[in-house]
Amino acid sequence: MCMLNMYSYVKLFVLGIVLIGFTACQGDDNDAQIITIGDEKFVVDYAITPEQKEKGLMFVEEMPDDYGMVFINAVPSYSKYWMKDTLIPLDMLFFDETNTLVYIEHSATPHDLSPRGPDVPVCTIVELNGGQAKSRNIETGMKLFTNVAQECLQSPKE
Question: Considering the entire predicted model, what is its pTM?
Fold first, then answer.
């Protein structure tokens, strides 16, 4: 007969809590990834499916300053975003097919339905907490680095 002492029960309990916490942090369908803009690092989730892209950061009440969401176009596209059902101000960063930041929408107002974005095709859009681009000195011309293959960057140039 195997008997566990109190120390073994505590180890099993802690292991169980850690596994539950790890599972809870995995997100809906995406694993969080790290991106870099200039020298600044962010933990991000990717909006991949049409449903994830449509929802974006809607209904999020708060978010850590080093967190964001990434949207990737299949091909370079004219992309406009609005703040429907978004509860927090967001910075929206738009990157072209060379991963160069071409446009920043600073601190977009929650619930505002005004379309926001550049008048040039973009591949990637990153949403961060409002004010993060300014406080971290993120400016147009900076590069986005990620370890996720982006279809948009693979498309043939005309």
Answer: 0.78
